[in-house]
């Protein structure tokens, strides 16, 4: 399997900081300790008091490095700086390689674009029949709701539009987006994303979900959100009540490191789960953040404790300016190999590469088939032991069986 000492492990000083990853704690109020509880717990207060400037960052984080300072100065031309006070308090100020810090504080490396990097790595613009609606797969669409997020991830696949720092000027036209779906009966699954859909007001989100639910061929609604992680205060009972009215509705959250799963995040996820919403998680494999089997194991196990099923682990998309956060695919495969068989199957996500240019998600798995012939398949289990299973010829389905049981219109 090779050496599994990772860049993040080296950066975090080996095992010394692992203790506590599985514990649920609260980041507390930190520098905002004098703010009344009712304000701190108000999601709109958190949004109004986000850290958005170098001046704020220098005051709150005296250990800001020259690379971070230079990156922050330039961030507003690429992807804005934005961090909620709640999430900011998860940063370890004494650790330049803090996995929380690397996700949200800009660095100068973001201004360097590797030859293979792109502004639209998933080729979404080429599959947009109306502004804000991506129709790439046969039976489902991506419905972009907003270009705003509670905090901004420095590796965001959609950084060309999110935060509007580079002047994309996103203006979703919900009427046109909904009309397209209404006119396309093959669309049975609508994924709301952005930006973060849960930043809409309760009223606006309720209206949008109701409009989509009124389309008879829409079977499934999904929401992609990082709000339970960046802004758990937003998951109010009122919001849960609105979401509950639009089942079947699934939510995919986005968590990369076990420290993001705090007491507050767990409570928010439990409120969503109690509203009957199946929860999945999408992680991005990031250098010095989670490119370590022990970090990933703690993350996926902790997610299950929050009633969230790990869904995808993404190889970092080829978004411009993200090379410093990218790991090798080999590293991702090593991590997957350390999960499968070593922990609960429900905890094991599918490792995927979103094929550059719009090819869609391609699963990448360690090799478990050693040999496959007409009469046997040789398998390697998670411990590296080999096992043999007999192969049998496929026999055609008898014509009479096909006619009575499978042919359209016969039942
Ligand atoms: S929350 Fe999602 S859309 Fe927003 S910046 Fe992060 S990755 Fe991008």
Automatic annotation (TrEMBL):
GO molecular function terms attached to this record: 4 iron, 4 sulfur cluster binding; L-lysine 2,3-aminomutase activity; metal ion binding
Keywords: 4Fe-4S, Iron, Iron-sulfur, Isomerase, Metal-binding, Pyridoxal phosphate, S-adenosyl-L-methionine
Region (Disordered): 1-30
Cofactor: pyridoxal 5'-phosphate; [4Fe-4S] cluster
Enzyme class: isomerase
Binding site for [4Fe-4S] cluster: 149, 153, 156
Enzyme Commission code(s) on record: 5.4.3.2
Pfam families named among the record's database cross-references: LAM_C, Radical_SAM
InterPro entries: Aldolase_TIM, LAM_C_dom, Lys_aminomutase/Glu_NH3_mut, Lysine_aminomutase, rSAM, rSAM_sf
Residue stretches making up the Radical SAM core domain: 135-347
Positions of modified residues (N6-(pyridoxal phosphate)lysine): 361
Catalytic activity reported: L-lysine = (3S)-3,6-diaminohexanoate
UniProt superkingdom: Bacteria
Family membership: Belongs to the radical SAM superfamily. KamA family.
Protein name per UniProt: L-lysine 2,3-aminomutase
Annotated source species: Limisphaera ngatamarikiensis
């Amino acid at each position: 399997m090779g050496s599994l000492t990772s860049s993040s492990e080296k950066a975090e000083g080996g095992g010394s900081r692992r203790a506590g990853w599985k514990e649920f704690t609260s980041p507390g109020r930190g520098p905002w300790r004098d703010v009344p509880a009712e304000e701190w717990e108000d999601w709109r207060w958190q949004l109004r008091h986000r850290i958005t400037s170098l001046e704020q960052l220098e005051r709150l984080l005296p250990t800001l490095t020259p690379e971070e300072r230079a990156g922050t100065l330039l961030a507003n031309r690429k992807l804005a700086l934005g961090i909620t006070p709640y999430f900011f308090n998860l940063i370890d100020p004494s650790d330049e390689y803090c996995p929380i810090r690397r996700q949200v504080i800009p660095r100068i490396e973001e201004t360097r674009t590797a030859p293979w990097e792109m502004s639209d790595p998933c080729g979404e613009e080429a599959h947009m029949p109306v502004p804000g609606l991506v129709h790439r797969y046969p039976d489902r669409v991506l419905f972009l709701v907003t270009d705003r997020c509670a905090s901004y991830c420095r590796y965001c696949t959609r950084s060309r539009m999110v935060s509007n720092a580079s002047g994309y000027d996103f203006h979703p036209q919900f009427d046109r987006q909904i009309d397209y779906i209404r006119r396309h009966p093959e669309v049975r699954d609508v994924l709301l994303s952005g930006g973060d859909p849960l930043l809409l007001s309760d009223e606006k989100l309720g209206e949008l979900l109701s409009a989509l639910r009124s389309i008879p061929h829409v079977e499934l609604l999904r929401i992609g959100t990082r709000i339970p992680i960046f802004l758990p205060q937003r998951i109010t009972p009122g919001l849960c009540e609105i979401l509950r009215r639009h089942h079947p509705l699934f939510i995919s959250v986005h968590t990369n490191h076990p420290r993001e799963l705090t007491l507050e995040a767990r409570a928010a996820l439990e409120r969503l789960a109690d509203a009957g919403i199946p929860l999945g998680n999408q992680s991005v494999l990031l250098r010095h953040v989670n490119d370590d089997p022990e970090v990933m194991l703690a993350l996926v196990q902790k997610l299950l404790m929050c009633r969230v099923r790990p869904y995808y682990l993404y190889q970092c998309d080829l978004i411009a300016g993200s090379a410093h956060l990218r790991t090798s695919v080999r590293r991702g495969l090593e991590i997957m190999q350390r999960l499968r068989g070593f922990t609960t199957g429900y905890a094991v996500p599918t490792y995927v590469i979103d094929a550059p240019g719009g090819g869609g998600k391609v699963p990448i798995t360690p090799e478990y088939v050693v040999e496959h012939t007409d009469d046997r398949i040789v398998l390697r289990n998670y411990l590296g032991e080999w096992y043999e299973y007999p192969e049998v010829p496929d026999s055609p389905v008898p014509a009479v069986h096909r006619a009575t049981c499978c042919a359209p219109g016969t039942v």
